[in-house]
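2024-03-11 09:14:02 DEBUG pipeline.ingest accepted 1 chain
2024-03-11 09:14:02 DEBUG pipeline.ingest length=432
2024-03-11 09:14:03 DEBUG pipeline.predict start
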Amino acid sequence: MQQASERRPVIEVRGLKKQYKLGQIGGGTLTHDLQSWWARVRGKEDPNTVIGTDARLFGQTFMALNGVDLTVYQGEALGIIGRNGAGKSTLLKLLSRITAPTEGEIRLRGRIASMLEVGTGFNHEMTGRENIYMNGAILGMTKAEVDAKLSQIIEFSECGDFIDTPVKRYSSGMFVKLAFAVAAHLDSEIMVMDEVLAVGDMKFQQKCLGKMSDVAGQEGRTVLYVSHNMSTIRQLCTRCVVLDKGRVLYDGDVEQAIALYMETTDVNVVHYDLADVNRMTLRSGDRLRVETLDFVGKESSIFADNEPIRVRFTWRVSQSFSGVNMKLYLHFNDSSLLGITHPVDLGPAEPGRLYTTEFTFDAHMLGEGRYYFYLDIFDGAMGQAICLDKPATEFAFEITNSDLSISQWEAEWGHIYFPPVKLEGTKAELPV
């Protein structure tokens, strides 16, 4: 493989900044805007402010990116990692020209195929086949060029039986399969992927990772991949960037980047506002939305291994449900999945109400270290479960050892304390 210095740079970013304004920007009409302006001039309360809105937010700004410099070379598979709010998705949106930078310069050499969320660039009323041709046209391909790729796309997507069905009737898994197949097979020099494999099944995820490796290694195309799953970052990427508070914290070796990212896990956060954070699956958060989550009675999310972890979260629904269920995906700090909890039935729900759920998690089987979990709210039995909400937020906590008699080398044997092995006996026999 050629060294990065010998390859052609396809993405060059210099001094990139993106600023957003907090609070309400306009009143919706010129009359309301004039009323609000005149109230501010006189030092009066804004008559158009929604009850409960913090008027102090007016005029404040937030720097989603604050001076990013980055060069990406042809054929690289670059991972971009960081905590929620670090600026990962903003960077990809700027590169994909979905939004414009406040300051800085972006130079791109080649066409970009973006998949920033499931079904980006798809028309829900059109069939799968029609969407393939539309995406090809957006990339500047002729009908003959798309025709040459069509059979490969349909075969890879595993959606052949439904290719002439409007995609609005697709399941989230079918949607992501077709969307990825389109992005991976149409002619583009740069592929941009943002946490898109969280929806697909495990077999298809491995298929996608293999395809992205081939795209970068054999076809010489460039891949930018954002994910919270460190195992896929390790499997795919040859270089990794860590973003933190809109700046590049590290750029280089994948393992060192992951180690640095893990050190930024904040166990001092005990309250999460979730109403406006991204969701991990298509359409989750539409009919039911988790709004807040708290570690109860704690100033930090650090627990002794004999201390129960109490969690409280609030949620609203926009339609009736006969039964709402919950489960947790538990991960160790290196992103490896430890397991999934048994489903818990939260009961029925009616629209127009705010529900508060509190549960206790027993962590006495966990070894010393840092962990996090994802919250998954779903409808129906496990076999036919439909995800209602799954915030793309890692709820981090730390377990400390309450038994000082356990030595460090024992604690480092794994993430879970297993019960003692029961000895059934030992028998000695003479050699034959």
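2024-03-11 09:14:41 DEBUG pipeline.report The longest strand covers residues 9-21.
2024-03-11 09:14:41 DEBUG pipeline.predict end
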